[in-house]
Amino acid sequence: MAGSNRGELSKMLARPHGRTRAAAVAPGAEGFEGCTEPLPRRIKVVGCGSCGVDYLASVAAYPKPDEKLRTDTLEVQGGGNCANALTAAARLGLSPAIVTKIGGDGLGDGIISELVRDGVDPSLVLRAEGHPSPFTYIIVDRAGAPGCARVRGRGPPLGPGLSSPSGCPTA
Question: What pLDDT score does 8 carry?
Answer without folding.
Answer: 44
